[in-house]
Amino acid sequence: MTEGKNKGIVEKIWELLASVKFAIIIFSIISLTSIVGTILEQGAERSRNINVLTRLFGDTLAPTLYDIFEKLGFMDMYHSWWFVTLLFLFSINIVICSVDRLPRIWKIIREPIQPLTEEHLGRSPIKKELIVKGKPDEVKIMVTSAIKKIGFHVAEFKEDKGYQFFAQKGRFSRFGVYITHLSILLILIGALIGIFFGFKGFLPIPEGSSASIVLLNTGHLTNMEELEKERILNALDASSGNISNVSQQLGVDESSLQAKMHRYGIQPLSFSIRCNDFNVDFYEGSDMPKDFKSWLTVIDNGREVIKKTIEVNNPLTYKGITFYQSSYGMVPNAQGIFVLRITPQSGISETKQLHLNDTFTIPGTRIAGTIIDFSPALSFDRQGRPFTYAEMMNNPAVLIDFKEDGKEKYSGWILKRYQTTWKLPEGHIVEFIDLWGTQYTGLQVRKDPGVWIVYFGCIAISIGLYTAFFMSHRKLWVRIVQDKNNTNIMVGAMTNKNRSGFERKIDTMISLLKKRQEGGR
Amino acid sequence: MDSSSLFGISTITYILAMIIYITYLAFRKPMIGIAATTVTIVGFVAQTAAILMRWSETYAQWIAFTPESTFIISVIRSAPLKNLYESLIFFVWCLILGYLIIEFKYKNRSFGAFVTPVAGVVLAFINLSGITKEIEPLMPALQSNWLLVHVMMSFIAYAAFSLSFSTGLMYLIVKTEERREASYLFWTVTLGIFITFMIFMGIDFLAFKVIVKPEAFIKSYMFKGSLINPSAAVRILSWVSMIVIIFIIWRYGSLMKTVIEKFNISAETLDEITYKSIAIGFPIFTLGGLIFGAIWANQAWGTYWSWDPKETWSLITWFVYAFYLHSRMIRGWRGKKAAIVAVVGFAAVMFTYLGVNLLLSGLHSYGELR
After folding, report:
1. What number is the ipTM of this complex?
2. CATH topology for A113-169+473-517?
3. What is the C-alpha to C-alpha distance for residues B329 and B338, in angstroms, rounded to an integer?
4. What is the reported pTM?
């Protein structure tokens, strides 16, 4: 008695989880809650979302609403327990509805097509009839070839007064829906693998330096925690990444150090990566970057293993970890090296590396130049006075003072991006190639072992959707029966999708038969 | 002749086609119908030529800036699908193409009176609003082969969805009988909001026409002339006029029904077109919009999914259309309820396409300014 009742409940839950209604309820809840997540900025500082709420609901309500939303997890909602639960229910729904329906579909697919009785044929969803001259045996070949023309390979069945031909096509298209559903599951599994076995972080490397510790995104840290994080990072730097050294130095055991590093998002790599150079190209005459590139070297066990130039949309992968060019910036208080190429009027170019206030001579002359000033982004105002308009290296320029035999000759700005400024009055060329060592390259670092499962799921979902929407399971019966000296042709057909398309196919077949009939006699 | 004058010609041609289609509805003479179709095709050809011409103009600019890139890369990089202006034009192109296919397949011209105005209005909006038409250099993140295929497929899907929106709405108009019915309320209110928003955006445009930077104007002044005006009187007036417009449509909605019934399109055909457009749009959107977008994001930023508002809204759109496709399988949902979902789906499309850029980013960047 109790067992029967229990089974009833289990069955009811099963039915609910397998139902289309449950699916669309989940769709609706996921969509509606996601909307909130697009309005409230995710993982942002309190003040930003207070601002958003103030704009929407006014000053008085905003703080209260913020607290309510925060308690409900809306400030990082896509990782909150209830959103993950929704995704889990979504997966459960996909699994159960597939398990629930597959046996039935499998039966339909496996079922061989049988000849129909006249009565059944008459009840087909699509039916057509026509009469042609000649007895069934005479028109048989004509009929089968017409059926073949629309792409069906028929089986033949001999009846009392004629024949019946029947065939089906696209049985396996019925799997399309299930392929689609299961590939969604695959994508979710791939995403889970990425979350549990991968990481995502940021790695800024100044030109000429190397780094081997990636900083991952963490939640909010208190001041104390920030300080401790800083201490661990410094210790790691000092002992070049040796964990046991660091644990000794800080007086904590290795496992709790590991836990702390995990908490603070400190992810050491098993190799280091060096930025040899970084450069931004701009579109001519504007400050819009055309391209930015980093020349990177991977150093593993003291050996240089890979050298690659990366740019946006073209990352570097080593040992399953990928480095993406994502940003750049200036290193504060860095003393860079100016790279100048000097070509005397009659002579061979010479490249020089100089510091600020260094002096160089133009080969073959007595002219000496001194770098006396630098601007990362030089522009001139209306009176022609130079000024720096940005902190980034948008338009780097050096001010060089030239002297001949110690006597003042001329001085002027040489701009990296403007060729006309490179030429000196006597025809010598001083080209400002780079200021090296003042910029850092910002790399996005990602390890995601699940991405291939996600991609596989994407391929599968494409196949599934194509099969589900553009292919159909079609069944066709054609019965030819003798009617005195003529033959009565009856066509019955059914399909699970795109009925009008199939009907057009059948009409083609019938008009083919009519045409043959007229042409033949 | 350059691309923008050709775009001008196609705009005028579509507006002309609209007039002829409406005349055709009134008089039902076959000759007028043929004329309408011919004019539409002329407009379509002109627009196709204009798009190709803009492509070649962009190509010329691209190789001037980047002489080192190969021919194929240059062609792909210069596809005219990079900003609001170009994407709206491509959207209209897909819409007209979709309409022409439906016209030939269903042998029914009446629907043209609905589609050509949309095309004409969108193109005229582009011209009037002063959305930047400059061919801009391509920023590094957009220099990917995925740009072309991702944007192109997304817009083909958007065009298919907008066809399903108009047929879905027409289906609702034809199928509802009483003013108290929920689905009648739904379509009158939806249409009312749609029309009011159009009017308010027109007011925004007129009020802030003087401002030089059009992109900035749209973002920070959206609905400032009406719904969120600093003056309370204007705000109240705007809300009241919205309610009045909705009421008028609700009161006289049956007139629209009589008009559409004249179209000679059965409700079943409307339902079929709605379904078929979604059945075509949904797989294209999944592949081109979501999957290719994810692959591209993974290449550029190292995450195929980061729950940013644009991604989330495409997912919401995807769920709404998944809802539509599944709802047709439930007894009692076929028909009016499914059509409502199709209409809601298009609202999600509009928000994914325009709302995220104009409203959400505005919401967030405004917070930044403070």
Report:
1. 0.84
2. TATA-Binding Protein (3.30.310)
3. 10
4. 0.86
